[in-house]
Design the sequence.
């Protein structure tokens, strides 16, 4: 099974508190790393995979993000509809619910704008799409082994069983896989929100409970770009390949 991905969503509405002082005057997606704004690194990967329409949610310094997208659209010819969260920051789950009318009825790619990844031997988004099985999955997350999650300081996020089904890290334990911020998700999972502000974790937990959340391992490089101190480490890692 596989899917042709036509639409993506890029999460770009966060406050970027951990990236201060760089985010005092600019939104985190526009912080430059290795010569490019973070948002352009993500959009380049999305468009390399053949997706020409990416919905972008905005909140903090939203005008700057919109202006950047308009300038990029003139260069690339791609389409960047905006899901406007200026009035209220909705977190990732609430952001998906608000953007759903723009995303359509088919499974779509969703990516965070504050992680940076480089493809390995294959294009990771295309590989995700080739792995998608609509009869079996409501969410397919791109994960990376904890040991290769550059800049990640947490204890990991998930375990994978032999079929690729996800389960959560147990409290007080280390999990072998870290979520990269990239996933395919089905609109059928984005239902019955608990409130208007909530995390995508709510949807994932439902899918995990039903055995319909899967993971696929990223074979390339991945960097957690969370703080100003991380930027030179990321740039050195990219330069080293």
Sequence:
């Amino acid at each position: 099974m596989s899917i042709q991905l036509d639409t993506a969503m890029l999460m770009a509405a966060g406050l970027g508190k951990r990236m201060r002082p760089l985010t005092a005057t600019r939104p985190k997606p526009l912080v430059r790393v290795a010569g490019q704004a973070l948002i352009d690194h993500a959009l380049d990967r999305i468009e390399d995979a053949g997706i020409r329409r990416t919905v972008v949610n905005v909140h903090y310094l939203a005008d700057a993000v919109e202006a950047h997208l308009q300038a990029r659209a003139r260069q690339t010819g791609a389409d960047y509809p905006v899901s406007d969260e200026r009035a209220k920051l909705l977190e990732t789950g609430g952001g998906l619910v608000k953007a759903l009318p723009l995303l359509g009825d088919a499974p779509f790619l969703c990516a965070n704008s504050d992680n940076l990844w480089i493809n390995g031997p294959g294009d990771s988004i295309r590989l995700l799409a080739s792995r998608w099985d609509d009869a079996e999955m409501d969410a397919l997350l791109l994960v990376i082994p904890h040991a290769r999650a550059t800049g990640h300081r947490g204890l990991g996020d998930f375990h994978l069983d032999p079929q690729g089904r996800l389960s959560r890290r147990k409290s007080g334990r280390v999990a072998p896989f870290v979520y990269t911020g990239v996933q395919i998700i089905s609109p059928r999972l984005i239902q019955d929100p608990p409130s208007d502000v909530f995390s995508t974790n709510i949807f994932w937990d439902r899918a995990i409970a039903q055995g319909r959340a899967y993971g696929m391992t990223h074979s390339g490089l991945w960097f957690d770009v969370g703080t100003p101190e991380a930027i030179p480490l990321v740039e050195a890692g990219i330069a080293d390949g």
User: Anything to note?
Assistant: Helices lie at 38-48, 62-76, 91-103, 124-131, 201-209, 230-240.
